[in-house]
Amino acid sequence: MPPLIIVRDVEKFFRSGLRSIHALDQISFDIDEGSFVSLVGPSGCGKSTLLKIITGLLPGSSGVVRVNNGQVDEPLENVGMVFQSPVLLKWKTVLGNIMLPVEFAKLEREPYLERARSLVRIVGLTGFEEMYPYELSGGMQQRVSLCRALVTDPQILFMDEPFGALDAMTRDELDLELIRIWEERKKTVLFVTHNIQEAVFLSDYVLVMSARPGRLLEKIRIDLQRPRTLEVMSSAPFGDYTLRIRGMLASAGGNRAAAVGSTT
Q: Any bridge partners for residue 8, and if so which?
């Protein structure tokens, strides 16, 4: 079976007047269906830019992206997106925000409403369905955002530093929740983060990027037993993976990269 996502020789330049910024340099990798893959690198290395190119939200300057064996030339359908900010509509309830993709796609409401209620139960928000975003904590808002991304049962879930703004305990909690949902539903996930420990904890593979212009340094297979609990972070293999990635980033990006990967 061919890879679900194929990225070949992708480059990106941003131009403003006479100035040109080389954001991405000859990025190539594959992602198999059902895999959980994290993209890790220092701030400003082009992780989010690469994610936007793969989803079709931003054109590359050169190279090719293929998803489901079709070239990506426009925004993908049947995908879920979760961003660092929950981006909830303040005048919509929890359930109303979750159902937004159904409304936009003009799908039949009832089957997806039942699915939305099921997702609410899965992420532990039962009883909050009719509350508004201002009544929720940051972690709860991100749970709503995750439900919204999953409500139409997308094949692929793209996540751009979704838990980066949360406190450490809430982040751990949502990492565990995400793993549980992924193990149950086996979506293909591409997860952007600058946190090395989070990347290792969540992933089957970690794609390690250099500082700008972003280059792919290595695709590392994370051979840790699943299902995973927070206790795995104290194991020797987990420590070996994090030190290996930290060393690669420090060698490729200097002091700024060496600081990447604070504790989750």
A: 64
